[in-house]
């Protein structure tokens, strides 16, 4: 009977060790699951931040390009009102094609002109001045002084406008 007691005690010790090992295994599994989830969350956050950084960098370059486009628009508007020689007209037609290509480039990268310009909206417009107008109600946009643009559904540059008093 003494041998039986020893064997029972050994089995009990083995079961006890097995339970300890099983608990330790469960603890490590849980830690592994948590670390894996943290790593996945970190990867998603880094990817999202990378996209945001790229958009900010693109927006900076596109804003600089808008200045050049404004210059093209102003110069083209200036010469639209004058009588020109055939040679000068051909030269300006070339510049008009360049301006058109620039607008196409903006469109390719998700830049669109702000077209809601009837009623002043502070999220889309920047009021530069207020003017008296019999033709417009108070708060209406009277004149667009500088075009505004959206970039991927966010304001890249607000339209600069004059507003009726």
Question: Would you write up a description of this structure?
Answer:
The protein has a domain at 110-165: Nucleotide Exchange Factor Grpe, Chain A, domain 2, CATH 2.30.22.10. The chain is 62% helix and 18% strand. It contains 2 helices and 6 strands, in the order H-H-E-E-E-E-E-E. The protein has helices at residues 2-80, 86-108; strands at 111-113, 125-131, 141-146, 149-151, 154-157, 159-164. Strands 1-4-5 form a 3-stranded antiparallel β-sheet. Strands 2-6-3 form a 3-stranded mixed β-sheet, with no helix packed on it. Strand 4 and strand 5 form a beta hairpin.
Task: List its traits.
single chain, 165 residues, alpha+beta, Nucleotide Exchange Factor Grpe, Chain A, domain 2, 3-stranded antiparallel beta sheet, 3-stranded mixed beta sheet, 2 helices
Overall SS class: alpha+beta
Low-pLDDT parts are none
CATH homologous superfamily caption of the domain at 110-165: Head domain of nucleotide exchange factor GrpE
The CATH C-level name of the domain at 110-165 is Mainly Beta
Would you list the SSEs in sequence order as H and E?
Answer: HHEEEEEE
Question: Largest sheet, described in full?
Answer: 3 strands, antiparallel
CATH topology of the domain at 110-165: Nucleotide Exchange Factor Grpe, Chain A, domain 2
Shape: elongated
The helix content is 55-70%
> What fraction of residues sit in β-strands?
15-25%
């Amino acid at each position: 009977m003494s041998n039986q007691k020893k064997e029972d005690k050994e089995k009990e010790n083995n079961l006890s060790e097995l339970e300890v090992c099983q608990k330790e295994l469960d603890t490590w599994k849980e830690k592994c699951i948590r670390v894996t989830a943290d790593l996945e969350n970190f990867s998603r956050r880094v990817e999202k931040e990378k996209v945001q950084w790229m958009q900010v960098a693109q927006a900076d370059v596109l804003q600089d390009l808008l200045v050049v486009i404004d210059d093209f628009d102003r110069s083209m508007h200036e010469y639209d009102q004058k009588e020109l020689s055939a040679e000068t007209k051909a030269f300006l037609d070339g510049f008009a094609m360049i301006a058109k290509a620039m607008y196409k480039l903006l469109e390719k990268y998700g830049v669109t002109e702000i077209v809601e310009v009837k009623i002043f909206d502070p999220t889309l417009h920047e009021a530069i001045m207020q003017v008296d107008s019999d033709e417009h109600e108070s708060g209406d946009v009277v004149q667009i002084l500088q075009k505004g643009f959206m970039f991927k559904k966010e304001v890249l540059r607000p339209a600069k406008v004059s507003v009726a008093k």
